[in-house]
Amino acid sequence: MASDVRERVISLIAERMDVDPDQITDDTHFVNDLQSDSLDMAELVIDLEEEFDLSISDEEAQKIETVGQAIKHIEESQQ
Amino acid sequence: MSTLQGKTALVTGASRGIGRAIALRLARDGANIAGLDIKDDLLEETGALVREQGVEFLPITADVTDFDNMKAAVGQFTEAFDSLDIMVNNAGITRDNLLIRMSDEDWRAVISVNLTGVFNGIKAVARPMMRQRSGRIVNIASVVGMVGNAGQANYSASKGGVIALTKTAARELAGRGINVNAVAPGFIRTAMTDELSEEARESALGQIPFARFGEAQDVAAAVAFLAGPDSSYLTGQVIRVDGGMVM
Ligand SMILES: NC(=O)c1ccc[n+]([C@@H]2O[C@H](COP(=O)([O-])OP(=O)(O)OC[C@H]3O[C@@H](n4cnc5c(N)ncnc54)[C@H](O)[C@@H]3O)[C@@H](O)[C@H]2O)c1
Q: Is the per-residue pLDDT at B201 higher than 60?
């Protein structure tokens, strides 16, 4: 289950940001490494919400800076 | 002539009036059209005229005040067509009365169709257009939204809101190659202005340098320009089509 979340998150980010999934690790930083802007982040949050059928508040979304944090957030809210 | 060949457009309020004229004009310029309206009885009439131009027509029955409706409408659209190039937020209503006599219901109804409807429309098409990294959004405002009009507190506020919303959306979406502009008609000959009293009509004509009402096609021509290749460097702008009423 956990690795499934990881795979789905990474493939979603890879597609959205147009990068090779192999280049993405837990430490990949959305702004610094993927050059995401605020609109990219807003879209990513909506994508994650739709993919995992959950709702991420703006406050929570603001705390997500790295891929690892995104995966952790989803795993925790699925428990 | 076929400046919009291969493009696709979603037009709200397309059953009649200005919306129908916009659908026809974009079709004449080569775009496939989806016509959306809350009332579907006249939509097929628009559809027949659009198809005469040799393009496809998809009728969609939806209420612009309901975001889920609009989201579903965009879903229908993207299923039928490969891209979503042009969105025209045209649906609108009036419920005129003097401010002190205006009911809460009339205030809300007009804000909800004319302003929230445009917000819903933009929000529904923004993501597919962002993914494409291109798109044109044209909102139909009114000169009344710039200068006010006695008896139209609800309507003028909604249209002023549309102008501000157009500018904000233009700023937010520019980075994704999406242009957002507005057309502000003055008095146009449609069912909406047929309701005017003789007195109101006379007073309106007195404010128009061209001393006549415009035609729906005049508005459609400005929309076609904003939807087409010649306006790629315009965003956040309001084009007035009003016979010189507001300068
Ligand atoms: N006629 C004018 O002089 C004039 C002037 C300035 C601006 N405008 C604007 O132009 C636009 C079109 O006006 P028109 O004169 O063609 O009006 P119209 O009443 O002839 O057409 C409006 C269309 O919008 C549809 N509509 C209404 N509520 C809707 C909803 N909730 N969801 C979906 N569709 C809905 C109606 O069914 C109708 O087909 C409006 O936004 C209007 O405010 C008109």
A: yes
ipTM: 0.81
CA dihedral A50, A52, A54, A56 (to 10 degrees): -80
B113 CA closest ligand 1 atom index: 31
Q: Which has the minimum average pLDDT: B16-25, B136-145, B196-205?
A: B196-205
State the pLDDT at residue B195: 85
Ligand 1 interacting residues, C-beta cut-off 6 A: B 12-13, 15-19, 37-39, 63-65, 90-93, 113, 117, 140, 142, 185, 187-188, 190-193
Beta pairing class for B238-241 and B178-185:
parallel
Is pTM, for the whole model, over 0.90? yes
Q: ∠ CA(B68), CA(B74), CA(B75), 5° rounding?
A: 85
The closest of B246, B192, B188 to B219, measured between CA atoms, is B188
8 Å CB contact of A39 and B127: no
Instruction: Please state, as a whole number, how many other Cβ atoms lie within 10 Å of the Cβ of residue A35.
Output: 11
Nearest residue in B to A17, CA atom: B131
Task: Assign domain A2-78 to its CATH superfamily.
Answer: ACP-like (1.10.1200.10)
| Euclidean distance between CA atoms B189 and B197, whole angstroms | 13
Cβ pair B130:A39 closer than 8 A: yes
pLDDT at site A78: 85
User: What residues form DSSP beta bridges with B87?
Assistant: B10, B137
Instruction: Match domain B8-240 to its CATH number in 3.90.76.10, 1.10.530.10, 1.10.150.240, 3.40.50.720.
Output: 3.40.50.720
Name the nearest CA neighbour of B170 among B137, B141, B142: B137
**Which residue of the set A27, A33, A37, A53 is catalytic?**
A37
Read off the pLDDT of residues B215-238 as tens digits, 9 standing for 90 and up: 999 999 999 999 999 999 999 999
Instruction: Compute the distance from residue B52 Cα to the ligand 1 centre, in Å.
Output: 23
| Chain A residues within an 8 Å CB radius of B175 | 37, 39
